[in-house]
Design a protein that fits this description.
With 119 residues, the protein is mainly alpha-helical. The protein has one domain. The protein contains 4 helices and no strands. α1 runs antiparallel to α2 and α2 packs antiparallel against α3. The longest helix has 31 residues.
């Protein structure tokens, strides 16, 4: 059973490292900031999942595995939120993005009512 566990852990570690490497290449290759953010966020999330899952399998059921799982859950909530905030900032400050439109409305203003009626 330990040989099978070792093979699964090695496979998951290799998959996680491959995803991290692919994300690093994607960040360097893509030209637009939003594409870079997407490559980075997706690579971090999937790569960390594979690596931490391999550690959980290797350690077995116990307190250490629970701590690793809590780190994974925290990262799965924090990473998309941070990526979204960075992308929203980029979209609202960069005028050269083209078809991306960020609408900021304040409830109760005439500009917000006019913008809502147009859509």
């Amino acid at each position: 059973m330990s040989i099978l566990k070792l093979i699964i852990c090695i496979f998951l570690l290799a998959a996680g490292l491959f995803v991290f490497l692919s994300a690093t290449i994607g960040v360097g290759k893509f030209g637009r900031a939003l594409s870079r953010i997407h490559a980075s966020a997706m690579g971090d999330t999937l790569g960390l999942f594979c690596i931490l899952l391999s550690l959980i399998i290797w350690k077995g059921i116990g307190l250490a595995s629970l701590k690793i799982a809590l780190v994974l859950v925290f990262f799965w909530f924090a990473s998309p939120v941070c990526g979204h905030i960075i992308a929203q900032t980029e979209a609202s400050t960069n005028r050269d993005l083209g078809e991306i439109e960020v609408i900021r409305t304040v409830v109760g203003t005439d500009a917000a009512k006019d913008k809502t009626e147009e859509n």
